[in-house]
Model the fold of this input.
Amino acid sequence: MNSENFSLSEKIVSSSYIRQGSQARRSHEQLIRHLLEQGKCPEEGWSESTVELFLNELAVMDSNNFLGNCGVGEREGRVASSLVARRHYRLIHGIGRSGDIAAIQPKAAGSSLLNKLTNSVALDILKLSGVRSVASCFVVPMATGMSLTLCFLTLRHRRPKARYIIWPRIDQKSCFKAMITAGFEPVVVENVLEGDELRTDLEAVERKIEELGADNVLCVHSTTSCFAPRVPDRLEELATMCAKYNIPHIVNNAYGVQSSKCMHLIQQGARVGRIDAFVQSLDKNFMVPVGGAIIAGFDEPFIQEISKMYPGRASASPSLDVLITLLTLGASGYKKLLSERKEIYSFLAQELKSLASAHGERLLHTPHNPISLAMSLDGLQAESDKAVTHLGSMLFTRQVSGARVIPLGKEQTISGHTFRGFMSHSEEYPCPYLNAASAVGITRDDVTLCIKRLDKCLKTLKKDGNAAKSTNEETVQVIITNEYDTS
Done:
């Protein structure tokens, strides 16, 4: 409805009522105008009706929704199922063109506008979350691992002689396979144990650079968000080292946007040294379906270079999902979620510490990890070799998802490289343990119910262990008695 149509409507319905309706629509349009002018996440979240009005306005700008369109090409935004069309708000053309995921599509002005606005709003959120000097970013319809691969492939053109990627160890398959898929040889640097924490071995990283030769190293591939007792890498020192040797630095910031500490590390690393790009997951940070990531950095030409490396057009679904989410939450809503997550982290730590004490275990001291916590399972290991892994299966069948139980001595071979002590980020971590994390969206009820079920599982395992011991002792006693029976 434009002003002309509202004027015509006054001939049908009372003008006072029409003016009221017109004012209501202008309220929606004003929010949209502010978004288009500023390109930032609105401070207060939009209503669903405003979001849907905006998306419908975008959709009618794409050629597949033109009333008189006559398509004779191979890609005309045709959709067989109306359910699928509605699921995507009839934004069917995707984003980008064959040569650049950020390029404008002549046939899809609405989808192109969606893409540009999503990248702009995402950049605003990264700044709001702590990386104030980030210069550019774009949403890519791939999860974190493949997005890291795209970064490595882009660097290949800048450093054609390089074969190696130096990687402080983190036991997560996708980031390791990202390097292999890109055609490079990961150089795994073991972490050092400081108290309970596993931290970056800076001396070992520098030795590897000097041993391999800086020109032969594609980049240093560091990590922020991770499972305790590993903690975020020493980004400032690594960034300084990369600047010293003129080596690119790619940061896996998978679920670090939700942590002010992780974002501060990236900001400081870029300030004192070199960080070329950092990659973060959409689903882990913004509570949207799996399948998207944000690639960001401090040098806009390099980020544009990465976007041009993406072959072909791309799905608009991740961009659409995260834009809807951020418009609905608003900046204040997202900041509230981050604040609540931090509060629940403290609550989870307190509850785990109490539970650990009650079962003769302890909460591992990992103050440098702002998201994940770990509780020792020494007593459980003493009960039985299988008791630790049994705990993991018990929790899963009792609908406790996300908790990770890490036994000692597990080996895993990935693409020809064997990791000893796999899942513990170390060849010989001193004890088995259980992980739990306070990630964005978690509630106090989640924590309370998890602790309750974990307590029951530990009591059951202890009871079963005692029963097994009692049975073994009785069996031994019977054998001894029979051996010396002279009757």
